[in-house]
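for the recovery benchmark. C-alpha cells below, seq after
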C-alpha cells in the first residue's frame, strides 16, 4: 500500500512540475498528449507495483518488424 501512495505522490509531483508551464505558454495540444502519455505510464507502473505480470514489449516489436513490415535481419 505504501508503494501505491509513493507512486501517486511521484506522478502528482510530475503533474505539478510540468503542467503550469504548458498552461502558461498555452500549449493545449501538448498538454493533452502529456496527460495521455502520463496516464499510460501511470497504469503500467501501477500494474507492475501491484504485481501484475506484464508481457515484454520486445515480442510486440518483433511481430511488428518481422510480420507486418516484412523486415528480416537474418
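predicted aa per position
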Amino acid at each position: 500500500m505504501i508503494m501505491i501512495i509513493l507512486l501517486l505522490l511521484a506522478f502528482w509531483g510530475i503533474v505539478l512540475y510540468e503542467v503550469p508551464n504548458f498552461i502558461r505558454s498555452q500549449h493545449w495540444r501538448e498538454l493533452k498528449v502529456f496527460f495521455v502519455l502520463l496516464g499510460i505510464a501511470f497504469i503500467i507502473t501501477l500494474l507492475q507495483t501491484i504485481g501484475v505480470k506484464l508481457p515484454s514489449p520486445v515480442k510486440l516489436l518483433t511481430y511488428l518488424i518481422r510480420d507486418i513490415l516484412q523486415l528480416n535481419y537474418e
